[in-house]
């Protein structure tokens, strides 16, 4: 059984291979959602997509200009809202049990790195950020 739980201030992400239906976990200090492997793959891919979009647009924004970016597929909706240096994330699971959670600004760079590393370990496509 592979078990990997990573935590930081205001976030946690993990994987437990022995769990059949919901091996992944994402959350904050106050909430958590267990995800299927496909949902976790979608989450990490969309998270990488949004952070890359933000990096690409940040030079075009005024210093006090906020931005909202969204990405979704049939399983996950993800919204990034705030400033390039301090933004929040909103996650909605769109199928099955339907759930949602939010990481307030500023989302930790350590959280983004932990998600990308865990996804890479699990060989999720498009997981690098």
TrEMBL record:
Gene3D superfamilies per the UniProt record, alphabetical: Transcriptional Coactivator Pc4, Chain A
BP-aspect Gene Ontology terms: regulation of DNA-templated transcription
InterPro entries: DUF1818 (IPR014947), ssDNA-bd_transcriptional_reg (IPR009044)
SUPFAM superfamilies in UniProt: ssDNA-binding transcriptional regulator domain
Gene Ontology terms for molecular function: DNA binding
A Pfam family of this chain: DUF1818
Annotated protein name in UniProt: DUF1818 domain-containing protein
Native organism: Parathermosynechococcus lividus PCC 6715
């Amino acid at each position: 059984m592979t078990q990997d739980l990573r935590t930081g201030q205001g976030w946690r992400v993990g994987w437990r291979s022995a769990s059949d239906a919901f091996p992944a976990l994402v959350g904050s200090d106050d909430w958590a959602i267990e995800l299927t492997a496909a949902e976790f793959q979608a989450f990490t891919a969309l998270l990488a997509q949004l952070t890359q979009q933000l990096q690409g647009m940040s030079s075009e924004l005024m210093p006090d200009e906020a931005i909202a970016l969204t990405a979704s597929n049939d399983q996950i909706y993800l919204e990034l809202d705030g400033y390039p240096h301090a933004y929040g994330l909103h996650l909605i699971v769109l199928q099955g049990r339907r759930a949602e959670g939010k990481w307030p600004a500023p989302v930790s760079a350590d959280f983004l790195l932990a998600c990308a590393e865990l996804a890479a370990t699990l060989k999720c496509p498009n997981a690098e950020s």
